[in-house]
Structure formats: structure tokens, C-alpha cells
Give the backbone structure.
Amino acid sequence: MTASTTLDSVDSESHDQAAGQGPLTKDGIPLKRSLARALRREKLRALLLIAPLLAFVLVSFIFPIGDMLYRSVENSIVEKTIPGTVRALNDWDSESGELPSERVFAALADDMMLAQEIKIHTRLGSRINYDQPGISSVFRKSGRQIKKLEREAAMNAFIGLNADWNTPEAWATLTASEQWPAQFRYTAISLDNWKAWLASEEGDDADPAALVPHGFTYATLYHDLSNMSASDLSALATSSDAPVAALFAGVPDALASFPSDDFKGQFAAIEKGWTEIDNWQAIKRLSPPIIDSYFLAAVDSERTDVGVEKKPENERLYLGLFLRTIFLSMVITTSCILLGYPIAYLLATLSVRSSNLILILVLLPFWTSLLVRTSAWKVLLQQQGVINDLLVWVGFISEAGRLVMINNMTGTIIAMTHILLPFMILPLYSVMKTISPTYMRAAKSMGASDTLAFWRIYFPNTVAGIGAGSILVFILSIGYYITPELVGGTKGVFISNRIAYHISSSLNWGLAAALGSILLVLVLALYWTYDRIVGIDNVKLG
Amino acid sequence: MSSATSAKSSTPIRGAAVRFEHVQKSYDGEVLVVKDLNLDIAPGEFVTMLGPSGSGKTTCLMMLAGFEPATHGEIFLNDKPINNVPPRKRGIGMVFQNYALFPHMSVAENLAFPLEIRKMGKSERDAKVKRALDMVELGAFGNRRPAQLSGGQQQRVAVARALVFDPDLVLMDEPLGALDKQLREQMQYEIKHIHESLGVSVVYVTHDQTEALTMSDRVAVFEDGVIQQLSSPDALYESPQNSFVAQFIGENNKLSGKITAINNDRCSMTLDDGTQVESHAVNIGEVGSRSTLSLRPERVELEPTEKRDNLVNGVVKEVLYLGDHLRIVMSVAGNDEFIVKLPNGGRAATPVEGQSYTLGWSAEDAKALDPVS
């Protein structure tokens, strides 16, 4: 007996030590692990139950929102449309006060040739136009003229030096060489551009291996070569790779005397926008694939050569709109509290029959379309509308002094308060219903007047409901769109209306996404603050 | 008589006197919930309103507290009519059924609330709160929220809060209803002791007859909006005025029959099966009228050894073992649910079901009630 007990205890001790922590089950598995295993089945089943909804939400909600938010910083269009130019601009000092070099213009000509062929240059123009107004016409106009550019100078010079340069084999040799593409980075881009251009221009029939590229590529090759160090150049000419050496024989010496295509001059002739440093600065600024320019624009700022700056007073729009949205949402929330509190109190204290009737009246608006309700407010509030007619008829206001209650902030506040009121009343009601009437009686029996009992006893117990209602109404109203759009005019619209404008009219999705992201962060910050101050656990919705 | 009971404590009586005069109450204008209530409560007295639900006892309490207006009649507090005095000016302490402790305040804040309203200074307030909490032995719990206390502790806080502003009258509306049996009994003694040491008047509402009997100086038994009987607990049990009270307070056997002779406070009756019994005439009509005989189960003796006024045969139908006593259901004189309680002394043989036994009781214990003409 004693022996076996000792054995048992030794045994269990060793188990304890083996596991390192926590109690064990009979067969020595840590209790926590067996509990987790026992619960895993239940968790899996629960997950299975929500799986359809989860998938639906992921595909139709989370993913699109994530994609939209990504658009607020995404900017690959510049690099994708004019890859050579973007790369060439890296070497350009935007603060030097000088235009980029001929090489950049050559790259631009090369990129634009393809871009206009597949008709994406105007899209790039509008993108850059968001940050540099006026530049879209520069792109548009250049696109039309690009085919007329003189581009044979470098090509002819190469062919003049060695007729082999006019054969596809020369290019095959070049691309097969060990220096490709490390030393011919721009030429590599240009060759890709040309192939894409060829495919678009000639269709699938054209075989790039059987053709020589167009003059832009020769010009780019020229620039690549002239940017090489003397030793690299001579290394090419004396390469152990015989065909390469043959191609580049004499090139190092002749390079200095190659004629220029003068793309800089030709572009300047097409559109004088290309001679403006501002435009080039904008292009360089917008060349990274991830940028903050949309966010800067969303807070009325811009990045200039001296850093981030506020936009000029008359161009500021969004900060004011954000402030107005927040301010109006606060006003709407406050009026919802003021109007909803007494109703909720009535609901909570009246007999079941009467309170049911009132509850139906409260919920009635939910049964009507939002548009219908908002339109009804238009009918009521307009200057020739029902309310003004009534006031004139009663004699409160004169015919000339009809009140302007719509297409301004007043209209937005009135209509939104009406629409969001149930969202305040219902949480308030559900909280008030749980407050026993004996609290008030107890307070009165202790000598408190009705007012005192209300403020000291009843009101503090409804704060959770006010908080829940407020956070609901505020968050709903801060992102509201349709009602401000219909009754807000210009003075009563919200930031969401601007977002909608950028999504559907100006097509500046990046800015819309940035505005939306800021709105989202604002709401999350608000939620966080609320959680810290009141505690989200105190929110009761029913 | 009753005020003498509470005067046994050395504390001078400071309680208030309450008087209901012809008070009637109707909620809907059709049914009277309280019918012509007349009740005098002496200063320092502990009066319990006892009755089944819907008997009007809580309504009476609410009228006294001022939460319900009397439809007719007048209520006096210390001889002043209070019908038109709002609750907050009545100065009555109240303990509610579910305590009604303010959930957003700590225990100490709850207690300080009535004092704050009376604009009492902070130091005085704190001293009073502390004294009140000590009185209910919760001195260390001042900073807790009510939700952090057990039911019994919440109950004590509620009592302390009702007493902290030194009211002369405290109303308690089924204050122990939510507690379990053991805690309830303990709280009964505590409330009783607090009452005795403070000398306040207490009006207590309950539907639990043991609670009423243990705590009260006097008990008012309510039924159908009328006080059926108002007496001290022992009188209520020993000499019920009608069969409702006899039935409601404690257990009771009913035997009905016809009165054959009346001799001062004794009467002879012929039960419905022809048995002749002698009874105590409490509340009966003429000779020849019908009456209900009320007999406590513990006053009936099985196979009496001494001489008894009444000896009746009965057949055992069921024997229930309840530990300290045996509960025997018998068929006696036409009543198939005649209960006899047999103390479990360990000696007597257990009665056998189906057997016939002789039952005996003295005439004094059989109360002839309910005159039926």
C-alpha cells in the first residue's frame, strides 16, 4: 500500500517535471492540451457554421475594401507607362534648375511611342494631372505627334559605321552577350517597348527576331553607350566574344561624333510644356510605385521642391470638408440625443400596449425607402414647400422672408436627424428598460426631488445607452452619403459626397481611397477613444 | 399591549405613529383593491402586513410611502394628514423588494445619498455612513459596488440606507423575498434587533407567515383588501378570528358541522358524519347554524393516554417521515385530509396505513369559526 502510493507520487512528479507547467490528466498529457483538443471539434464546427458568411464577407467586402485602401498609395501607372523615362530621371537632379538631359527625352520618346500605340498615355496624363494641373494636355498632344518625331539619326550613324547594325542578327548578338542587359539597361527596356509596340502595330504575325528595332531603340543604345566608362566601351570593342567585338569595332571612337536626334528640341516644338521644369519635377515626384501624394492631397497639402506644404488658401477643400462632416455629425448626434431621450423614456415607462404603438411609430421610417424619406423632406423644407407655406399662412414669416431650410446645413441636419433617430432611440430604450422604477422611488423616499432623482440616479444609469446610441449615430452619419447629396446643396455635403464624386465623376480613385482611408482611421480612432473613456463593454444595444 | 413588547428595549421610542382612516384604493375605478382600511400603528411598533399576493398589502404600503394616492380616506403620520405630502417630504425610510441599490454608486455613496440631499456636511455624513455600515456589519465594504456584494449583503446595505437618515418610520416591502431560507432567517433576527435597538416604527410587508410571526409586534392579515385580523403573533395563531386566518397562519384541519348547544365560550357540534364534539366558541352563530371547526395538527393526539374532551376515530391514509416529526394524513369525520403531527420521540410505533386509530383533543384547541346562517 505504502509502496504503491510512493510509486504513484514519484510517477506523477516526473510527469509534472516533464510537462514543465500546469496539471496533467490521468495519462500524463498536460491538461491544457487535452482541453484544447477536446474543444477543437467544437471550434471547427463553429467555424464551419460561419464559413459561408466568412467567405462571402472576405470576397465581397474585406478584399475590395483592402484593394480600395491600397489604391490610396498605389502609383505603379507612371513606372509602367514610361519605364525608361522614370529610370532615366533618377539621374536628374530636380533642383538643379535645368531640364533633364537628352537621354531622358530619348527615353520619353521611346516610352511614348509604345504608350500612344496602346493608348495609355492619356491615362498617365490624367494621373499626373491630379498633382500637376495642365499636364494631361501635354501628354495628349505629344501622343498625337509622337509618330512624326525624327528618330533615324543614331540609327543611321550605327549603320554607317557597320552595315551589320541593320540586321536582326546584330541585335541577337547583342542580347546574347554577357553584358546584356546589365550594361544596356535602357536599351533592354527600349527593346521590350519596341516588341510590345510591334505586337500591337503588326499583330502576332510580326516576328521581332526577324526585324531590326525602330530608331528610338538605336537612340537609346547610343545613350547607353555614351554613358559607359571608356574602359567598358573598349572592353566591348575588344571583347573575346568575336561577334560582339565585330559589332562594336570603331564604335568607341565614332561615338563622340554621332549626330543627335535632338528629341529635347523636337518635344519642345510639339508642346512647350516639356520645357517647363515644374512638369518634369512632377513626373519625377510621382514616379515611385508607392506614394503619399493622394494622402497629401486629401489633407489639402502637396509635396513641392521644398517639402510638404499647405495648398494655397483658395485650393483647400478637404480639411474643411472633414471638419464640416465631423461638426455636422456631432450636431446630428446631439439633436438625436435631445429628441430621442424623451421618446425612449416614454417607451420604457409606458404600459406595454402604448409603448408597442410608439415603438412601431419609431420603426415606421425603416419600412420606407431612404430615398422616399429624403425626398419627402425636400417637399417639406423647400422655399415653396409645405412648412414655409404654413408659416406664411399663419403669419409667422412674410412671403418675402421664406426660410431657406434646404440645400444647406440646416437641411442636412434636419433630414439626417430624422433618419438616424431610431438608431439613438433603440439602444437608449433597451438600456432604460433595464432600469428598475424602484430606483427613482427609492431616491424620492430618501428625499430627492424629481429633478434631483433624475439627474443623480436615472440619468447616470442611461449613460451606457447614450454612449451606444451616440457612437452608432455618429459613425453612421460621418459616412452618410445619399441624404446630404440630396438635401445638402453645396454647403451641407459631407466628405462622403466628395469621395463619391472622385469615384464616379473625376475617376481619381486614388484620392477617393485616401479620403476613405482617412475617414476609416477617424472612425477607428473615435471608437478607440470611446473604448478608453467609456469602455466598449458598457455599450448596450439590447 | 403591542407597544409594551417593543418597549422592553432600553432605547427611548422615537418612532412615528401611523393611522389609516377609512382608506380605500381603486386603480381602475371598478374594483376596490383596498376596502375601508382602518389601522393604528403605535410609535416604535413593528407591524407586518401579511397576506397572499393581490390582497392589497403592498398597495397599502405604497399609499403610506406616497407612491400611490389613496382614492378615499386619509392617512396620518404623527397625527398629520399626509395625503398631499409628496414622498420625498414624508421622511419615511424604505427598503424595496429588490433593494433598489443604485448600481452606479458605491455602497458608501448609496448611503450618503439621502444625507447629501439633506445638505449634511461631509464629515458628519461620513460618520453617519460609517455608523450605519457598522450597524449592519459591512464597515469594510463601503467602497464596493452593490453588484460586488452577495444578496444578503445587498439586503443589509438597503436596510442601512433606509435607516441612515434617521427616519421615524421604515417601510419594508418583502425585503427578504430574494434570499435563500437560511439567510432569510438570519436577516429576520438582524432586522428585528435593529428595530429593537433603534426604536423606529416599522411597517413590514410579506407573504411569508413565519417571517411575520417571528418579527412582528402585531400582524395584520390581509385578504381581499380587508384586514381579516390584527393581533399579536401568538393570538393570531392561538385564536384566529376566522377560518381564512386559521388556514393562512400555520397548518389547520377543518371540520364542518352544525351547532347543537352553546354554553358561554363552549359549544357542542355535530359533525357532518354525526360525530359529537366539544369546541371553543370563537365566532359562531345561533344554535342550529353551521360552523367550521379549526384544529391545529400538533394539538391532536394519537391514541391519547390521558382523558380528552373529544375522542374520534380516524383511518390512516398516508404517513410521511419528516425527521423531527411524522406527518400523518388521516380520514376523520368526513375530512380525508386530516393532518396529525406526531413528534418523533423515538418511542412511539409508526402508525400503519389503513389502520384505525383513536384521536383526541381538548375542546379548548378546537375553534368554532365562521358563522354561516
User: Anything to note?
Assistant: Residues 1-10 of chain B have pLDDT under 50 and may be disordered. Chain B touches chain A at residues 65-67, 86-94, 96-98, 100, 102-104, 113-114, 117-118, 161-162, 165, 171 (CB under 8 Å). The radius of gyration of chain B is 24 Å. Residues 311 and 360 of chain B are 4 Å apart (CA to CA).
